[in-house]
Amino acid sequence: MAEESEDQGAVAEAPKEKKPMSGKTKVIILIIVAVLVLTASIGGTLFALGFFDSAEVEIEEVEGEAAEQVIVNKPRPAMYFPIKPAFVVNFSSRGRQRYLQAEVTVLTREMEVFNAMQTHMPLIKNRLVMLFGGEIYDELQTDEGKELLRQKTLEALQQVMQDEIGKPGIEEVLFTSFVMQ
């Protein structure tokens, strides 16, 4: 028996010879590793871009039985509506004739508001010409005066939309050009 256990120990101690990998096996392993790295890279890029973000969906009742899906956490894309042509108004300041030329662009995120602005453009232009013409030239020369005019413009446009479609809908008013002379 002692001899048998020594023989088994000798067998266990003898290292098994490993076959060297063939060239085909190495190529297959390299291809698999490359595919895994490429997949991880693409997955990481998509994750960083927010492709895998889970959006919560709410169901709202719209006119009885119809339902509209609204995606929460995803703001609608901004739509910019330039009001053309630029507004030109004149002022009388210290006995001299002065002018203001302002280009106005409106930011909204709703197509309904965008379409309503096109429909009610004469009313919008009238309100803005009256608003700009009623300002004091010297006050508009300061940064605070320009910001105050921008706020008044936003409020005026939101009021027009509120009166016409029942909601303000305009998020921001931008002066893309503001020249005083």
Would you write up a description of this structure?
- The protein contains 6 helices and 5 strands, in the order ααββββααααβ.
- It has a 3-stranded antiparallel β-sheet.
- The protein has 2 domains: 22-74; 79-180.
- The protein has helices at 2-13, 23-48, 111-119, 121-133, 137-140, 143-165, and strands at 57-61, 67-71, 79-93, 96-108, 170-180.
- The protein is α+β, with helices and mostly antiparallel strands.
- β3 (79-93) and β4 (96-108) form a beta hairpin.
- α4 runs antiparallel to α6 (143-165).
- Helix content is 48%, strand content 27%.
Overall geometric form: elongated
Strand segment tally: 5
Helix tally equals 6
What are the secondary-structure elements, in order, as H or E? HHEEEEHHHHE
Oligomer state equals single chain
Share of residues in strands? 25-35%
The SS-based structural class is alpha+beta
Q: Unreliable segments (pLDDT under 50, ≥5 consecutive)?
A: 55-62, 64-69
Query: What strand order characterises the main sheet?
Result: 3-4-5
